[in-house]
Amino acid sequence: MDYCHQHNLVDPSQAGADRPWGIRVTLPPADTLRKVLGDEWEKLHWYATEAERDAAFEQMAIRHGYYRKTDNPTQVLEKIVR
Predict the structure, then answer these.
(1) Which long-range contacts does 35-39 make (Cβ < 8 Å, 24+ apart)?
(2) HSE of 7, CA atoms in CB hemisphere, 13 A
(3) pLDDT at residue 70 in the model
(4) What's the CA gap between 4 and 60, in Å, rounded?
(5) Which partner for 47 in 15, 24, 52, 75 could form a disulfide, CB atoms 3.0-4.6 Å apart?
(6) Neighbouring-strand partners of residue 45
(7) Per-residue confidence band for 38, with pLDDT thresholds at 50, 70 and 90
(8) E strands of the chain, at which residues?
(9) How far is 1 from 80, CA to CA, in rounded Å?
(10) Pairwise CA distance, residues 5 & 7, whole Å
(11) Contact status, residue 78 vs residue 26, Cβ threshold 8 Å
(12) Residue 5: pLDDT band by 50, 70, 90 thresholds?
């Protein structure tokens, strides 16, 4: 598979590697964005090691600086293993 953009989530050197540790991102049941994305929407991120996954999980759980003070992110993060 060709990779033409550096912002791709998968590093080309790791594309075929086993990545059993994951993070599932979903939305809470009452989130209004479900009307746009659908009730079954989820995003999965996979990592080669548990430590790598846990570090990414901590970063994803931080309230990022680009939110307005009145914004409250509602994503649900779940650690998973396949």
Answers:
(1) none
(2) 0
(3) 79
(4) 25
(5) 52
(6) 23
(7) very high
(8) 21-26, 43-47, 76-81
(9) 26
(10) 5
(11) yes
(12) low
The ranges assigned to domains in the chain are: 17-63+72-81
Token readout for 53 is 């996954």
Paired tokens of 75: 């994503």
Residue type at position 36: V
In tens, the pLDDT along 39-81 reads 999 999 999 999 999 999 999 998 777 777 777 778 999 999 9
76 with 28: CB under 8 angstroms?
A: yes
CA distances from 3 to 10, 12, 16, 74 (A): 9, 7, 13, 31
Give the Cα separation of 45 and 35 in Å (integer): 23
Name residue, tokens 């659908």.
38
Rg of the chain over all Cα atoms, to the nearest angstrom: 15
